[in-house]
Amino acid sequence: MALIDLPLLMKDAARGKRSAVTCALKCGNQCAFGPCNHSDNATFRDIASAALSRRAVIGGTTGALAIALGGTQGALADPGTGQGKGKGNGKSGALAPNGSKLRFEAIAPVDYMVDEFTVPEGFGWHPIIRWGDPLFEDAPDFDWNAQSAEAQALQFGYNNDYTEIQEIPGSNGKRAVMFVNHEYTNENIMFPAETDQDDVIEIGMAAHGLTVVELERKNKNFPYSYVRGAELNRRILLTEEFALTGAAAGGELLRTVEDPEGRTVLGTLGNCSGGLTPWGTLLSGEENFNGYFRTPGTSAEDARYGLADRATARGWEATHERFDSRTEGYENEPNRFGYIVEVDPFDPTSTPRKHTALGRFKHEGANVIVAENGKVVAYSGDDEKFDYLYKFVSRDSYVEGDRAHNLTLLENGDLFVAKFAGNSPASEIDGSGEVPADGSFDGTGEWLPLVVDGESAVPGFTLEQVLVHTRLAADAVGPTKMDRCEDVEPSLHSRRVYVACTNNSDRGTTGKAAADEANPRSENRDGHIVEIDEQGDQTSTTFAWNLLMVCGDPAQGDQTYFSGFPVEQVSPISCPDNLAFDAVGNLWISTDGAPSGIGFNDGLFRVTLDGEDRGRVEQFLSVPRDGETCGPIIRDTDRSAFVSVQHPGEDGAWGEQVSFFPDYDGQGPKPSVIQVLPQRG
Ligand code: FEO
Ligand code: CA
Ligand code: CA
Ligand code: CA
């Protein structure tokens, strides 16, 4: 047997053992090779002083906003209730923020060695579906010792990340369709040690991709179960044909020997977060796609995307030549990954699409909002140290009820990249994370055009180049280098946009961009959340912004900020990743990396956004050892929440497993989708 050599791969990787495994298998050890962005576009500090005279709109009105919203929502809120004072047990007790029905008493953070899924008192948790669960009538039951690519192709994939559940119309709340993507695989804990390397590769490939699966429940007081063999069930694998859309489709940069037309790609890779469109389709971001390709590594484009002439973690290039772009005819294969993918879960025969109009980079995901003028706006972060925040504005307008038309909206439009300016003196942004004298990290910003009216807006770049080599085009217009934008999620309640900057250990280090007001902490271990308020319509090219929070554990002495909420009353939070909103507009944050930051297992947190408790953070759940909390869905009207637990026990090895979640049957861990709801009886 020749399983992937993890110790070798982990050499030079990140500091903690847990993150080293993640680095090797999820990100291809990108950190070990340094940030991809060596562009010398204007750093934020260069422009901060120029913006001093401009009054920050959000910064200037936060207090007024709080008062205004407090007037309408304060009566519903739990006045003055701090962390740990609530009586919530899911059924009774103090009202939750903004009157949410999901009432709970925040849990204490859980030590990173604990292999338990922890929920508040009065709640229970239920696995809906696990890695290996059979999706179809003819799918075999999972057997740790009899795995095959054929079986895996019919079973739920590995490392569930983005997750969305939509009720099936007419089912009276009893039936739903769930979409889940499968970001990557942890071969070190998936397979018996004697497994043949060719089988490891083929099964691993079949464990990637996407799943659509139907759910059913007795009523909203009962957990969902998945329905084996249901009509909408679907696995989308690396053999599935995806249609390329947008101006780059059919172009020279996307053609290969297998696809001389440059319009059809087999499969999707590195799917991380995503979003639900107003027309009921799912978007999924192709993130760390570079980790699957070996390339010549000689071009500026390769360097900027972290593509190199080195063996990949999984070695697929040894047996599948399209993953080796040094092979004649496959030079452009890596150009066909790194997009936003759209899937219609209600039509199992539909062709999934990759939208070049939203650009190509390490898309964390994309989230859509319909602007006041009817255009569709999609926000997307490029999750890499010092990379950028993007916005797409559709050419055509949303038409309520015309699904066929709306399905085309992400195929053509304008593309922008964000440039932030702070309103505090640069001398007050010293990298410590200490709040400047005006009381806020805040300022204004611009959306710099990359594509306008179907034309490239970047001198020296064709439209096709902008859409395929988006990072390089963006470098040329001077956006702000961010601390790894993960989910970027507009609130349908306030229309404000929230950006999870998960962390950036290189910020402010030698030769790297210094701290700025939008990324104010050097060696940013714990991340922060940016709040954006578009000026006027959502399609505006200017915005105001402020930081909702600078994360960490105040009890450990971390320099933190929670919009002025008392730091001693918040749940410690580190490495924000995925974002969601509940029915009344509270923000929910799931984390990825808290163990290597504050030493606790990752979790799911509720954040009050408005009123006098703005900035209050309450931890709702904690995932088991080595797990990442992904894909949160909040259904507070049903007093229910869902998370995908990714890579539980990734620090283990076959025969030395360190997690047995969720079944605790002594075999090993399985990434799973979990529902949390009040315990009955
Ligand atoms: Fe797959 Fe950006 O996390
Ligand atoms: Ca300021
Ligand atoms: Ca993520
Ligand atoms: Ca992450």
UniProtKB/TrEMBL annotation:
InterPro entries named in the record: Channel_colicin_C (IPR000293), PhoX (IPR008557)
Protein's GO biological process: defense response to Gram-negative bacterium; killing of cells of another organism
Domain Channel forming colicins, residue spans: 444-455
Residue spans crossing the bilayer: none
Any GO MF annotation of the entry: pore-forming activity
Basic and acidic residues biased stretches: 514-531
Spans annotated as Disordered: 507-535
PROSITE patterns for this protein: CHANNEL_COLICIN
GO cellular component: membrane
Family annotation (Pfam families): PhoX
Record protein name field: Phosphatase
Lineage, top ranks: Bacteria, Bacillati, Actinomycetota, Actinomycetes, Micrococcales
